[in-house]
Amino acid sequence: MSSTTQRTLDLFEKTGAYLKGHFRLTSGLHSPGYLQSALVLEYPEHAETLGRELARRLRDITNGPVDAVVSPALGGLIIGHEVARALGVRFLFTERDTDRKMALRRGFAITPGEHVIVIEDVITTGGSTKEVIDIVADRGAKVLAAGSIIDRSGGAVDLGVPRVALETLSVPAWDPATCPLCAAGEPVVKPGSR
Ligand code: ZN
Q: Tens of pLDDT along 128-159?
């Protein structure tokens, strides 16, 4: 385990951001662990440190200039902004419209031929990041790489582009139908709902 990896996990534990229990994730899967990155990122100095480190790792795996960082709201907003600041490029975000479809709104423009990096806070299934990658590709831009503070898939998620994470964990995530905590009658919590 590298010192950076240890620092990242330490930050989550120190700020109470690594929750244990029975959670319904954004993906719909159930899990005994939840990484509430908002509790780390509420400290701007931690956000800056993590963003700078992610930017450094991304520079190592990408060749040539980057034009913009794009993140899915809400989870990717703060860390994506910090990565963009560290890289000295624009920061744009996607959000879900009224029919839950991920979209680029607010007049944000991505020009064909631009080189983009996609940043999320935590990758579980990679679903949100994939949606952003598709939106960027639809506009004729090239996604050079993707990054996240945490990869909780144990490295299993394949986004079709090079990917980095400051910390890789294997936290179980179950379909609700096969969730052992549901089977045990444990009430499920949607993190952030209280
Ligand atoms: Zn469950």
A: 999 999 999 999 999 999 999 999 999 999 99
63-89 confidence digits (pLDDT tens): 889 999 999 999 999 999 999 999 999
Give residue 119 CA to ligand 1 midpoint distance, Å.
28
User: How far is the centre of ligand 1, averaged over its atoms, from the C-alpha of 24 (Å)?
Assistant: 7
Q: Is residue 190 part of a domain?
A: no
CA of 28 relative to ligand 1 center, distance in Å: 10
| Domain count across the chain | 1
Cβ 143 vs Cβ 3: under 8 Å:
no
Q: How far is the C-alpha of 66 from the C-alpha of 63, rounded, in Å?
A: 9
What CATH number is attached to the domain comprising 27? 3.40.50.2020
- 64 CA distance to ligand 1 middle (Å): 44
CA of 175 to the centre of ligand 1 (A): 8
| Largest CA-CA distance found in the chain, in angstroms, rounded | 53
Which residue matches tokens 């980095």? 164
Domain of residue 29, residue span: 3-183
Read off the tokens for 113: 């031929």
Task: Tell me whether residue 189 is in a domain.
Answer: no
Query: Model pTM?
Result: 0.90
> Within a domain: residue 34?
yes
Q: How far is the CA of 128 from the centre of ligand 1 (A)?
A: 21
